[in-house]
Write a structure and sequence with these properties.
The complex is a heterodimer of chains A (about 70) and B (about 180). Chain A is mainly alpha-helical and about 70 residues long. Chain A contains two helices and no strands. Chain B folds into two domains: about 80 residues, Rna Polymerase Sigma Factor, Chain: A (Orthogonal Bundle), CATH 1.10.1740.10; about 90 residues, Arc Repressor Mutant, subunit A (Orthogonal Bundle), CATH 1.10.10.10. Helices cover about 65% and strands about 0% of the residues of chain B. With about 180 residues, chain B is mainly α. The chains are: A mainly alpha (about 70), B mainly alpha (about 180). At the A-B interface, helix 1 and helix 2 of A face helix 1, helix 2, helix 5, helix 6 and helix 7 of B.
Chain lengths: ~70, ~180
């Protein structure tokens, strides 16, 4: 598990994948829609992970280890 | 040994995708991040049910989606009622104003039924296979395929309303939202 950064550009590393064919007719229009869809998504997906989530995971981590070790206190 | 650390690390790597998916579901950055937060807490609790080496992204998307629809059911449809909020809150970046305006695209996306929109996002943006999307949405692969196809056709129709030349926000907005543009 390295290179997490590339995750958003590459298809996730799942075992089986069947690529979405450009269905829905009208090649040019559909290509434009596909681009917009990516732009719409990447607008958010390209942002760095907000601190609140890292803080949250830290807290969850701590809570867990605390509950493990504090049972005898 | 450091399974926990691996889990955490992989989880963090997927957060950007979760946020993007959540934004498409909720139509609001704030709600999206609240949804992601709840998803992370759930995922953390269910950590033991995750099999290392399997597709964590699909697993997390499933949790997020379930959480979203559970909330929707609890709150009634209140979550989605605010027409045009998507478009207003998610202001487009200037550099993306092109022949096909991103903001118009968002409005078009908004007009899709939920099931079509999420299928389109999962396949066209999140990079899932039809099989994975079907699993996430708990439906048949053929259903996902037809939803994506209908979504594409519908968006083309909506955006095509104005013909080739003009995708001006006012004209499109009026078509879509049904309000007269401030001429």
């Amino acid at each position: 598990m390295s290179d997490r950064e590339k995750d958003k550009d590459v298809q996730s590393s799942q075992p089986q994948r069947s690529q979405a064919p450009a269905s829905g007719g009208g090649g040019g229009v559909q290509a434009a829609i596909g681009k917009q869809l990516k732009a719409y998504y990447d607008d958010v997906a390209s942002e760095p992970v907000p601190d609140r989530f890292l803080t949250l995971l830290d807290a969850l981590d701590k809570a867990e280890s605390a509950s493990k070790s504090s049972s005898r206190e | 040994m450091s399974e926990q650390a691996d889990f955490r690390r992989e989880l963090i790597g997927i957060i950007p995708n979760l946020r993007a998916f959540a934004t498409s579901l909720t139509g609001s950055y704030d709600r999206a991040d609240d949804l992601v937060q709840e998803t992370l807490v759930k995922a953390w609790d269910k950590q033991s049910t995750f099999q290392p080496g399997t597709n964590m992204k699909a697993w997390l998307f499933t949790i997020l989606r379930n959480e979203f629809y559970t909330q929707m059911r609890k709150k009634g449809r209140e979550v989605q009622d605010v027409d045009g909020v998507h478009a207003m809150q998610l202001a487009g970046h200037p550099e993306q104003q092109g022949h096909l305006d991103l903001q118009d695209f968002r409005r078009a996306l908004d007009l899709l039924p939920d099931d079509q929109r999420e299928a389109l996002i999962l396949i066209g943006a999140s990079g899932f296979s039809y099989e994975e999307a079907a699993e996430i949405c708990k439906c048949a692969v053929g259903t996902i395929k037809s939803r994506v196809s209908r979504a594409r056709t519908r968006i083309a129709e909506i955006l095509g309303v104005e013909g080739d030349g003009d995708y001006g926000p006012d004209s499109i907005a009026s078509q879509i939202i049904g309000v007269a543009p401030a001429a």
